[in-house]
Amino acid sequence: MPKRVVVLLTGMLLLLLGVAGLPALLAQDIPPTNRTIALEVLARVNSWRVSQGLFPLAENETLAQMALDQARYVYPNWTRIAAQGLYHQDASGRDPRVRGVQAYNWPFYQNADRVEIGENAAEGSVASAVGFWQGSSIHRRTALNPAYREVGVAALPVRNGYIFYIVFGARPEVLPAMLAPNANTLYLSREQSRYAATAAETRVRLFDAAGRPLGGDMPWAPTIPLPPGTSGQVTVLYTTGSAQSLDIVDLSKDIAVLEAPAQAAMPTPTSPPPTPTAPSVTPGAQATTAGAAPVAPPPAPATPTAAASGGNTLTITFTRNSLLMQNTSAVPLDVTGLEISSATGRISISNWTRVAQFNTTRFGSRDCVAVTTSGGGANTSGCRYLLSSVQFTPDRAFWRDTTVTITNNQVTVGTCDALAGQCVITWP
User: Which backbone phi and psi does 351 adopt, to 5 degrees?
Assistant: First the structure.
């Protein structure tokens, strides 16, 4: 086609679209965030924080949207933005702190200049991004700021990995608590912002779902054990001086996102918050931070279609390139002893928890785990959360064209014909 014709057609297209139509056209080229990769970043950052005696961050929808919006803004022009060091400015030139207050109504302390928000960015793999933040003093101060209690993460795929944005924050009088994976223990946060009005000692009291106290008033500690048999919801009452704050913890889903090796690590009291730092970048580096101065996590698309009419059930959905298991009960299930196997292979719950930690004794209603091969992915559109996804090579897809057996602590609880596509197992 002659060059003049191409130019003419392009001009006609622009005329038809108009200025308002261009952003929608460009947006089609920006991929969605990869939820699994974003959770891997969060697990590494949280495990890093726990190893330093800090609270593991709770996911927050507003911060997640901030991270995604900034990632989508820089995505088409990452090379130029990186060269200019403008990773943290939006189209209006606003840094994360200003952006958080003006565009997202993020709460502040006393006035809009006193806001707790920080931001790290990177391009590459999960390991290289988190490794860079760990090795850079300014990124490290942002990630390990004890004032932060909530977080949002975005991961947009690019040719050499991902563009990552992680936005940290804290809201006045919002003190999340979370269940430790595979432990009957709560992680407790506390107010450590330099803008907080009081520095009085914090005390804690727990209540069950019916409002009955679970013990007496006690000094704040970074972790606190739950009384045996506690289930459902726990209310944490924080009292600091004359101020009080409540946080309701759903023990089936408000679980800290951590790497498997950090499972047993518990935080210890920390030093006061560091001196605030101005937003900055590292010239020439492919990762950066801005900071100074929250699952449940935003739901991930996830799973099958069948929903049990009653009882404790697991639904397993098979395709040639995926196996997806969902809790289709109305209550959490203990799947600690679960294994799915055939004559040619198997997978146990420990395989999934090695990839991403979750509470196997409280596998939540509508939550899912998956196995995929390089030939495709699982349909996770019906899941509340995709807690873990394991990838097998195609030759290890043991469910293909065969019958699989589901066991609980080596006792068979059901069998499935994988060719049928889906089956429902009654779980003890």
Answer: -65, -40
